[in-house]
Amino acid sequence: ETLLRGVCGKAQLLDIFENFIVFDETASGLIKVLARNHQYLGVNRAIDAVRERKARQGKLGVFWHTQGAGKSYSMVFFTRKVHRKLGGNYTFVICTDRDDLDTQIYKTFAGCGLADNDREPCRAQSGDHLKRLLSEHKAYVFTLVQKFNKPVDPKKPEEWYSARDDVIVITDEAHRTQYGMLALNMRNSLPNAGYIGFTGTPLFKEDEITRRVF
Predict the structure, then answer these.
(1) Is the four-CA dihedral 31, 35, 38, 40 of positive or negative sign?
(2) Is the CB of residue 168 less than 8 Å from the CB of residue 133?
(3) What's the pLDDT at 181?
(4) DSSP secondary-structure letter at 78?
(5) What is the pLDDT of residue 3?
(6) How do residues 135-185 score in pLDDT, each as one tens digit?
(7) pLDDT at residue 207 above 60?
């Protein structure tokens, strides 16, 4: 009964069919990926947060995964559904703190047909390149947080990387690098952006800093 009510209701089934199935061209061949229940529920809550981003002052929440729970695919489902269902010209900045994570996530997006750095550059090579990419209304920009390496005065719009309010920063491993100078540079350079954190690590129990930031 739970399966029938949760999956086979008309609205849910059509939503799954339209927005929660992707085909990923992996090294071992093409695979069909269907969202798990936590991805379906989490992505739709994140979509609601994007709709309410002004009232939420850009804090879109924390998407908490355990290891192996399909974090990269959740990002694909989320960004693709925003582009499909909310319209507009959203730019997603996928921000990590390690080269291997950046490559892993980019390969998932590329395998699913959402990005192609060779045809349309979207991976920041330096801080200056990142600033240039953010001025070009890309659908996706992939960067390390370390490339936000220049202090930005939030009171000087000429120093901002973008003043748009339809930029959404997706921070992977949000618990590690979002409370220091690099994160401050990022937020000062994208003052009107929305921010959503993805993490596989439990929130700090003492003051839940990840929850307060995102």
Answers:
(1) positive
(2) no
(3) 84
(4) H
(5) 82
(6) 999 999 999 999 999 999 989 999 999 999 999 999 987 555 556 788 889
(7) no
Token couple for 146? 């370390």
Q: For tokens 């936590």, what's the residue? A: 38
First CA to last CA across the chain, in angstroms? 36
Collapsing DSSP states into helix, strand and coil, what is residue 92?
strand
For 108, 134, 149, 181, the CA distances from 189, given in Å and listed in that order, are 27, 10, 11, 12
Q: Amino acid identity of 132?
A: R
CA distance 92 to 49: 15
Of 29-33, 37-41, 55-59, 62-66, least confident by mean pLDDT is 62-66
Query: What residue has token string 């930005």?
Result: 152
Whole-number Å distance between alpha carbons of 54 and 77: 22
Residue 37 neighbours by CB distance under 10 Å: 9
Residues in the chain, total: 214
Structure tokens at 27: 């090294």
DSSP category for residue 38:
H
CA distance 186 to 10: 42
What sign has the CA pseudo-torsion 156, 162, 166, 167?
A: negative
Q: Token pair for residue 39?
A: 């991805």
Q: How far apart (Å, rounded) are the C-alpha atoms in residues 189 and 139? A: 18
pLDDT digits (tens, 9 = 90+) for 81-124: 999 999 889 999 999 989 999 999 999 999 999 999 999 999 99
